[in-house]
Amino acid sequence: MAAQIEDIGACVFDAYGTLFDVAAAANRCRDELGDKADELAAVWRVRQLEYTWLRSLMQEYVEFWQVTGDGLDYAMAALGIEDNALRERLMDSYMVLDAYPEVKDVLTSIKAGGIKTAILSNGSPKMLNAAVGNAGIEGVLDDIFSVETVGVYKPHPSVYQMAVDGLGVEAGRICFMSSNAWDAAAAANFGFRVVWVNRFGQPQERIPGDPEQVIKTLEALSPLLGL
Fold first, then answer.
1. Can you name the CATH fold of 10-21+98-224?
2. What residues are annotated to the active site?
3. Per residue in 19-70, pLDDT tens?
4. CB-based burial of residue 7 (10 Å sphere; 0-12 exposed, 13-18 middle, 19+ buried)?
5. Of the four, 13, 109, 165, 211, which is 20 to 30 A from 172 by CA?
6. What share of the chain is helix, strand, coil (3-state, %, to 5)?
7. Is this prediction's pTM over 0.90?
């Protein structure tokens, strides 16, 4: 059994891929996309992330909604899809992505255990509020932190610092969860106690920062916290 993570004052969660299923939008349009659905979802996600990193380096910040649309436009062009109505449907679906099935129960358990809960995400406030509302988890979150406040994307340290400042909990007492290996590494390098939710069986990244624990889904989190 994995060692418990002790003396935690707050649990902070990445949103996309960790709490919310980023493939859900393409899955909802599978009838129109056919055998291109999975490839579109994969290319869309990769370009979305790459554009956040490139824009941060270029100091050309725009909100995540535009980055998401730009990533979709690239993916559709790469797959030879020209359909404005489909694009609109995919973007509308991304606004209210499905939460993974264990999310609400896990957050409820952590909150009941007296630990603060929050989201720390690249998402814009309107996107995060819509996804949280769709999942019905407003009541089990103490705060939602968006990179829009600092105008730069993860993994810039100023993004992780928002959780420290906003929750009033030092970095070493914040347990941070992400399904993204690069985000988990960067958060650990920043000083968080990190649990990498390796939903997709990824190899560990070769960048600074090592997660303290690795789990497959958030269901394994509460026991790690002694809840």
1. Rossmann fold (3.40.50)
2. 14
3. 999 999 999 999 999 999 999 999 999 999 999 999 999 999 999 999 999 9
4. exposed
5. 109
6. 50, 15, 35
7. yes
